[in-house]
Design a protein that fits this description.
16 helices, single chain, Methane Monooxygenase Hydroxylase, Chain G, domain 1, five-stranded parallel sheet
Length: 537
């Protein structure tokens, strides 16, 4: 199967690219499950944007948004990238409105929210299901586009490059080997313009706000293909994941209580009712996420408590039901009326700030291969992502990637004369006979990462994790080559690869900065004010 453009992932980043690319050639968008299962669709938070057309009387400006982003990024943001992406906020909102996204309004003006790390109200929401609304509108637009083919239940196994085929020394993308999950058939998808937009890796941890599909596929694909990887030590933990040990099912265990709740006055308290975050940062519950998550972690370890509490009981009756209807109703389903009782919460893995190293256009170190959204590392987030910058980045970089690609490799001008691509070669084709072992390895990996590579780290914990991961990689390699490939094996293979990258990057950064906090190096060291870079040779 051949396309002018091949996109892996159906969230805001991939679709922002694909919907525009369809005007210039054929586009195939691959989703490994249902298209609605993307990280975008799970995003409760909104999109940060200082809109020029909005009459602002609070003093906000693009300069302030840039400053807040740089402050949250702890010295590792690329200022030129920050300015470019923040400066595209107006166009992003116009773009999404054009697809039919409905943002909350107060009369003719957008109803703006405030979140941790932001100096002003500049967050556009669609109630508390912004991501679902964005995904709905963009997927509807994609399904109407005649030149775009959305293929669900297609799992990319590996990228195909000239270097992989030993064809030429110039490393260029040729396409991908893809598993059609319904039939078990492995197909070759040929394209010399490939965009990875497969989201993050939250499922590498035991507790995460991410959907089950967030298994680090894009980073693992890029890593195995030889692309440069940056800053995988910076994994953001969202401070407020609903805590209910009796909850059943992955969605219940991953239920996020949006940062916007704190932006509207929610206060984090310990079991004694104390606002403990004020002791750590004067901004209290509205400090950047890395600071708040560490404050909670410290409080839990100090007191031995299982959770802390997000208190909105001081808000007027009916406020939560009106402003956050999804969160309010979901909590009611778990037996909690948050207008009467505080919400028990704990931190959970939420966002991957590192990824494939790219420029602001999403261009990777492999010719013709681009990475947009959470899978890419443009320099916007630095050592810690500012809340609600991610949907903005996904849309902007998706648009810029197409502009760059059309300048360098328009469909009328082939990227290269492609060498012959062989059919996919694999080992034994026997069905896995002990799936329980695969599931055990999955659980062991996620608990290992939670226990040893979480919010607070040490050199010993990282080294122990690295040693166990070496054994897990060997076992997963045996599964991969010894049995017929299925989605469980492929996801485990990717998770182990990404876990190894997180640990290796963590061992190389001998300081505490942003999301990487180690008890062995408590201070920030300017010698490490640079990206942590890895490449597979």
């Amino acid at each position: 199967m051949t396309a002018d453009f091949l996109v892996v992932g159906a969230g805001i980043a991939g679709l922002s690219f694909a919907l525009r690319a369809a005007k210039y050639g054929s586009v195939i968008v691959l989703a490994k499950g249902r298209a609605e299962e993307s990280n975008t669709a799970w995003a409760q938070g909104g999109i940060a944007s200082v809109l020029e057309k909005e009459l602002r009387d609070d003093g906000d400006s693009e300069e302030s948004h840039v400053a807040d982003t740089m402050d949250a990024g702890a010295g590792l943001c690329d200022e030129a990238v920050v300015r470019r992406i923040v400066g595209e906020g107006d166009e992003t909102i116009e773009d999404l409105l054009g697809y039919g996204v409905h943002f909350d309004k107060d009369g003719e003006r957008f109803l703006l929210g405030k979140e941790g790390g932001h100096s002003y109200r500049r967050i556009l929401h669609a109630r508390d299901t912004t991501g679902r609304e964005v995904a709905r509108a963009m997927l509807e637009a994609a399904r109407r586009e005649p030149n775009l083919r959305l293929m669900e239940n297609h799992f990319v196994i590996d990228l195909i490059t000239t270097a992989k085929l030993d064809a030429v020394s110039d490393d260029r993308i040729l396409g991908a080997y893809v598993l059609e999950r319904e039939t078990g058939e492995v197909k070759v998808f040929k394209s010399d313009r490939v965009v990875l937009a497969a989201g993050g890796c939250g499922k590498v941890y035991l507790y995460t706000t991410n959907p089950d599909s967030a298994t680090g596929d894009g980073v693992a694909l890029g890593w195995r293909a030889g692309a440069l990887i940056a800053n995988m030590e910076f994994i953001q933990f969202h401070p407020t994941c609903f805590y209910n040990p009796a909850a059943v099912g992955p969605e219940a265990r991953s239920f996020l209580v949006s940062e916007a709740v704190r932006g509207e006055g929610g206060i984090l308290r310990n079991g004694k009712g104390e606002d403990f975050t004020k002791k750590i940062d004067q901004r209290g519950s509205l400090a950047p996420r890395d600071i708040v998550a560490r404050a909670i972690d410290r409080e839990l370890k100090k007191t031995g408590a299982a959770c802390v509490y997000l208190d909105v009981t001081h808000k007027p009756r009916g406020f939560m039901k009106e402003r956050f209807p999804y969160i309010y109703e979901r909590l009611l389903q778990f037996g909690l009326d948050c207008e009467l009782s505080p919400i028990p919460v704990v931190p959970a893995a939420h966002y991957q700030c590192g990824g494939l190293k790219t420029d602001v256009n999403g261009k990777t170190t492999i010719r013709g291969l681009y990475a947009v959204g959470e899978v890419g590392c443009t320099g916007l987030h630095g050592a810690n992502r500012l809340a609600s910058n991610s949907l903005l980045e996904g849309n902007v970089v998706g648009r810029l990637a197409l502009e760059e690609m059309m300048r360098l490799y328009p469909p009328s001008k082939p990227v290269m004369d492609a060498p012959p691509i062989p059919e996919w070669v694999h080992g034994d084709v026997a069905e896995p006979d002990e799936l329980v072992v695969i599931y055990h390895n999955w659980d062991e990996l996620r608990r290992l990462m939670w226990d040893y590579v979480s919010i607070v780290r040490t050199n010993n914990r990282l080294r122990r994790a690295a040693a166990r991961l070496r054994n897990l990689k060997k076992e997963v390699r045996e599964f991969y080559w010894g049995h017929r490939v299925n989605a469980d094996i492929l996801e485990l293979r990717n998770l182990v690869a990404v876990a190894g990258l997180i640990v290796e990057c963590g061992l190389r950064r001998r300081e505490s900065r942003g999301l990487h906090y180690t008890l062995d190096h408590l201070e920030t060291d300017e010698r490490f004010a640079k990206d942590t870079l890895l490449r597979k040779f």
